[in-house]
């Protein structure tokens, strides 16, 4: 896990959700100002952050209350770090961690910094249209998504995303599709039979 920088002092001014916006985050040599929350899930919040030059980044804050969640987060970061560089996969910038022993909190925390996609989620674009997308837009988005998935499947150990949906497709300012959220990704192939249960999906 040498790619994970220490983040013992990653927040100035406290680390609660309320204090996180407006704080300064240090990831290695990079200092980011946390501007606003832009998305929230069960164990993660995504923020818009910017550096001293005004360049925007997406900063994902993940919480791990148990070892299984910790392993899942580390796996997500490792997958993104390995797959980054493809034009249709969100670009990895850096990551940091602070343990619950260091912070005095009830859980381990992780920060994942990626490129910021000005266009937002594809699902939000679809909602704003108020109707179906144009055929050429559908084909473009589908082609770029397939290109990202093909890159995953061409790895020496093929990566299965397992959470493909419009909520996990982001758009750059130029309309380029970027696949994100590798929290469910795996290199393990499953062959369901009559004993298969949803709980086995996380194995």
Automatic annotation (TrEMBL):
All residue ranges annotated as the Protein kinase domain in the record: 32-203
Pfam families: Pkinase
SMART domains, per the entry: S_TKc
Gene3D superfamilies cross-referenced by the UniProt entry: Transferase(Phosphotransferase) domain 1
Entry's Gene Ontology molecular function annotations: ATP binding; protein kinase activity
PROSITE patterns the record matches: PROTEIN_KINASE_DOM, PROTEIN_KINASE_ST
Record's keyword terms, sorted: Nucleotide-binding
Name of the protein: Protein kinase domain-containing protein
Source organism of this protein record: Ciona intestinalis
């Amino acid at each position: 896990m040498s790619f994970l920088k220490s983040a013992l002092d990653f927040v100035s001014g406290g680390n609660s959700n309320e204090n996180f916006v407006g704080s300064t985050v240090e990831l290695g040599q990079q200092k980011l100002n946390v501007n606003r929350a832009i998305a929230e899930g069960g164990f993660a919040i995504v923020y818009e952050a910017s550096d001293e030059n005004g360049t925007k980044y997406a900063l994902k804050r993940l919480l791990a209350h148990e070892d299984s969640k910790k392993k899942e987060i580390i796996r997500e970061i490792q997958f993104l770090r390995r797959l980054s560089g493809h034009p249709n996969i969100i670009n990895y910038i850096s990551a940091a961690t602070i343990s619950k022993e260091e912070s005095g909190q009830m859980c381990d925390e992780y920060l994942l910094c990626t490129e910021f996609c000005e266009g937002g989620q594809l699902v939000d674009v679809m909602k704003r249209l108020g109707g179906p997308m144009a055929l050429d837009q559908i084909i473009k988005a589908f082609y770029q998504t397939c290109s990202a998935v093909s890159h995953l499947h061409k790895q020496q150990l093929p990566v299965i995303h397992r959470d493909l949906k419009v909520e996990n497709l982001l758009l750059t300012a130029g309309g380029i599709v970027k696949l994100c959220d590798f929290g469910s990704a795996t290199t393990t192939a499953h062959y369901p039979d009559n004993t298969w249960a949803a709980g086995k999906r996380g194995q």
